[in-house]
Structures are given as structure tokens and as C-alpha cells.
């Protein structure tokens, strides 16, 4: 059982969070794991969705209630909020794809059932050349400056998840070793991300889960390293970023749309969580 847990808004042992809604990172398993002598301690990413494509060797995947070994060829799917530690065979090879969770959710909105199918850690005991080819294409798009690059990247990521979802039916390795805290957290996360910001209070969410507000806050601190209130605030700010980027609504109009009674408080909260005012954020996007 995991006794000590590290929390990261960015990558393992990196304090810096993801670089916004378009964050996608691609690297080799050896480059990443070799930095830590093939041993990644149990931890949680609060905003990142990771895919590990193992082409040779093996990985021991440690979860809250146990450990499983995935031997190549295989895929490890790790959504945010899932406790995991990794011990690699020093001869392991493969690729790691890391995506901002909000960015991925936007891509998969037309097929949201696929996104919802990957809400817990999953090991897939198959990895074919078709999927590896898509991973290589995604890697190429990340590092080029060609026309329509972002559209190509989104299309490839969407297609990759369609293929992974189909594979999930055929080659899923049972890894239901998450703890009760993680289950409560994922239920809370699904509920608030599918609701309008601040349309429900923390007691409302706790009632849905049949637990107390104190228990809900304990769950959030354990799994995400944050209070339930802060997670709701971050959800509201993420929604505000989309409206600032894709609409011409004023800051006040956006505040009211997101259920803020005071636009001034909305602006202060936005700056507290992003380091920029809503106006500064919009100007940077337009630059």
C-alpha cells in the first residue's frame, strides 16, 4: 500500500505546471526514466494525462492497493488523479505522451464517452504498429511549424484515443487497485467538470457522494494535494480562459456567465491562479 504520496501539477519532480490548454509533450521512456535511475516514486498528476507505450522490457506499476507488471508490448494509460509509481527494467524502450487534461477533454468532446472510459489507470497488453505510427506522427507534429499544425495534432490525438478505446475492449489488463479516496475523487471530478462553475456548492457535491464536506476535502487533499474549493476555482478559471480566447465577451460578461456575483472578485481570483489579469491574458493571446 502507498504510504507517502507526492503531488505535481507538472511532470514528476518538476514544479512547473503544464503550459496551458495546448500542452502536449513527447519523449522517450528511456530519456525520462533514466533521469531517476529507473525508479519513479508513487505520485499524482493533478492536471496531466499520460500514455506510456512500452516496446521492449517491462514496467512494474505501483498503485494504492498493489503492483502489477506490464511486459512489452503494452500501453499504460494514466489519467490525472490516479496514484502511480513506476519501476522500469533498465533495458526498457518506448515512448511517453503527456497531455494537458483540459486540452484532451476538448478534443474528445464529440466522443466524450471515450474520454470517460479512461478515468482510471489502465494497462493494455497489446501495442501494434498502427498505434506506434500515430505516436510518431504526433511527435513529428509537436516539433514542426507547418501550416495547420494544431489541427493536425488534435486530429491525430483524437484518432489515437479512438484506437486505444477499441483496444481497451480487447486487451485490458485488470488494474483495479486504486483506493477508495481515488474513487471518491474521480466521482467528484466527473461531477464538477460536467457542471457549470459554481452551480453546486461543496456540500452539494459531498451529498452526491454520500460523504461529509470534511471527508470530501480530505479526499481532495490526499489525491490532488488541494482543497475541494481550490479545485472548483481552477475549474472556473479554465472555463474563463476558453471564453477569453474564443469569444468577444467582456470580462464582466464572462464573470456573470461563470456564476461570479462580483466581476472584481473574478478578476482577482483569475490573477491569483494564473499570474495575469483576464485583460492581460487576452492581450497575450492576441499578440
UniProtKB/TrEMBL annotation:
SMART domains, A to Z: HTH_ARAC (SM00342)
Statement: the UniProt record of this protein carries the keyword Nucleotide-binding: no
Source superkingdom: Bacteria
Domain HTH araC/xylS-type: 182-284
Alphabetical keyword list: DNA-binding, Transcription, Transcription regulation
Pfam families in UniProt: AraC_binding, HTH_18
InterPro entries: AraC-bd, Cupin_HpaA-like_N, Homeodomain-like_sf, HTH-like, HTH_AraC, RmlC-like_jellyroll, Tscrpt_reg_AraC-type_HTH
A GO MF term: sequence-specific DNA binding
The protein, known as: Helix-turn-helix domain-containing protein
Organism (species): Chitinophaga silvisoli
Lineage of the organism: Bacteria, Pseudomonadati, Bacteroidota, Chitinophagia, Chitinophagales
Amino acid at each position: 500500500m502507498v504510504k507517502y504520496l507526492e503531488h505535481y501539477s507538472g511532470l514528476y519532480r518538476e514544479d512547473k505546471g503544464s503550459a496551458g490548454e495546448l500542452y502536449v509533450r513527447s519523449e522517450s521512456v528511456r530519456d525520462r526514466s533514466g533521469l531517476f535511475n529507473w525508479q519513479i516514486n508513487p505520485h499524482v498528476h493533478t492536471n496531466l494525462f499520460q500514455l506510456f507505450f512500452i516496446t521492449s522490457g517491462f514496467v512494474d506499476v505501483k498503485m494504492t492497493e498493489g503492483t502489477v507488471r506490464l511486459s512489452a508490448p503494452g500501453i499504460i494509460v494514466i489519467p490525472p488523479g490516479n496514484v502511480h509509481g513506476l519501476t522500469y527494467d533498465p533495458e526498457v524502450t518506448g515512448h511517453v505522451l503527456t497531455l494537458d487534461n483540459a486540452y484532451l477533454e476538448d478534443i474528445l468532446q464529440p466522443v466524450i464517452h471515450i474520454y470517460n472510459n479512461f478515468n482510471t489507470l489502465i494497462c493494455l497488453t497489446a501495442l501494434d504498429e498502427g498505434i506506434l505510427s500515430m505516436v510518431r506522427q504526433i511527435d513529428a507534429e509537436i516539433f514542426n511549424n507547418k501550416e495547420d499544425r494544431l489541427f493536425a495534432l488534435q486530429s491525430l490525438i483524437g484518432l489515437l484515443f479512438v484506437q486505444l478505446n477499441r483496444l481497451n475492449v480487447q486487451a485490458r489488463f485488470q488494474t483495479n487497485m486504486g483506493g477508495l479516496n481515488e474513487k471518491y475523487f474521480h466521482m467528484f471530478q466527473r461531477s464538477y467538470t460536467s457542471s457549470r462553475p459554481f452551480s453546486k456548492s461543496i456540500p452539494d457535491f459531498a451529498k452526491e457522494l454520500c460523504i461529509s464536506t470534511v471527508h470530501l476535502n480530505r479526499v481532495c487533499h490526499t489525491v490532488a494535494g488541494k482543497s475541494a474549493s481550490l479545485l472548483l476555482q481552477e475549474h472556473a478559471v479554465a472555463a474563463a480562459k476558453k471564453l477569453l480566447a474564443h469569444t468577444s465577451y467582456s470580462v464582466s460578461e464572462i464573470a456573470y456567465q461563470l456564476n461570479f456575483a462580483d466581476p472584481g472578485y473574478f478578476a482577482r481570483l483569475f490573477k491569483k491562479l494564473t499570474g495575469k489579469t483576464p485583460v492581460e491574458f487576452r492581450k497575450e493571446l492576441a499578440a
